[in-house]
Specification:
It is built from 12 helices and 7 strands. The chain is an alpha/beta fold. The structure holds NADPH dihydro-nicotinamide-adenine-dinucleotide phosphate and (2S)-3,4-dihydro-2H-pyrrole-2-carboxylic acid. GO terms for molecular function: pyrroline-5-carboxylate reductase activity.
């Protein structure tokens, strides 16, 4: 996820020499350094990598799996300046859990990004902890705006937002996969079916990205009265697809709450 954010920031003009990334594996560090022209330090090569990167940083973006985030916060705590803003992208890890792992008074911002950030088309929520000044929040919002649309939300809405925009790219890719499989079932060559499904979902995404785009109006424009699309949509509705999507989103939000409790 953090490489996607990094891609968005660099494409928008962040100076690569202002960025230091850390990972565990040496080959992954090499890959990031070559691909993005940044400094990347692997824990396998330098166990102090995270401290080295965090020391003197204005903003630290923590991007490990939820289960490892508070350990990482504790690890870098000794080198953080009091003004360093610690940003987390982890699902299900609360601001309180992060603050408890950091020095008292450390500014913490919890975000929920998504992978289209790589193209500058992400959705990134921002929820600030109580130690964050309006100027610090503004700085992080401006920084992340390079990777997409930033929305400021209260922390108690993060799990719901994550179930829509955090996981959402997977839902769109899942749709493309299902369409490709349906094309094969209708007799299309598998390669062709994947290609046209991918381009169709991508093309529809581009249309949705136009200013003022309305998904309902766009759908209606494709749906000729008594035509073919109308039959497809009717079958989707009869199959309960909208309710199934709501069930999926509910399950994602419930899983986030469950992880928060487990990490308690
Ligand atoms: N994937 C997504 O779409 C989204 C993910 N998130 C959140 O992003 C976070 C990361 O998820 P994701 O990107 O999918 O996970 P990945 O496993 O793809 O990436 C995690 C990265 O962290 C590195 N890493 C792990 N432990 C350490 C450590 N101790 N020190 C330094 N680097 C370390 C790994 O290095 P190495 O590669 O060497 O193992 C890896 O590059 C999670 O908390 C998730 O909830 C949030 C929104 C969307
Ligand atoms: O699946 C996950 O847990 C993460 C959070 C949102 C998207 N990916």
């Amino acid at each position: 996820m953090n490489e996607a954010i990094l891609g968005g920031l660099l494409a928008a003009g962040t100076d690569p020499s202002d960025v230091v990334a850390t990972v565990r594996r040496a080959e992954r560090a090499d890959e990031l350094a070559h691909r993005h022209g940044i400094m990347a330090i692997a824990g396998a090569e330098d166990p102090d990598n995270n401290k080295l990167a965090a020391k003197g940083a204005g903003v630290v973006i923590l991007g490990v799996k939820p289960v490892g985030i508070t350990d990482l916060a504790r690890e870098i705590s000794p080198v953080l300046a009091p003004s360093t803003i610690v940003v987390s992208v982890a699902a299900a890890v609360s601001i309180a859990q992060l603050e408890a792992a950091l020095p008292p008074g450390q500014p913490v911002i919890r975000t929920m990004p998504n992978t289209p950030a790589r193209l500058g088309r992400g959705v990134i929520s921002v929820s600030a902890g109580s130690n964050v000044t309006p100027e610090q929040q503004q700085l992080v919002t401006e920084l992340l705006s390079a990777a997409g649309t930033v929305v400021e939300i209260p922390e108690d809405q993060v799990d719901a937002l994550s179930a829509i925009s955090g996981s959402g790219p997977a839902y769109a890719f899942y749709l493309a996969e299902a369409m490709a499989a349906a094309g094969v079932e209708l007799g299309l060559d598998p390669e062709l079916s994947v290609r046209i499904s991918r381009e169709t979902v991508a093309g529809a995404g581009y249309m949705l990205a136009e200013p003022g785009a309305d998904p309902t109006a766009l759908r209606v424009a494709v749906t000729s009265p008594n035509g073919t699309t109308e039959r497809a949509i009717a079958a989707f509705n009869e199959g309960g697809i909208p309710a199934i999507i709501a069930d999926g989103a509910r399950a994602a939000a419930a899983r986030a709450a469950e992880i928060t409790k487990q990490l308690g």
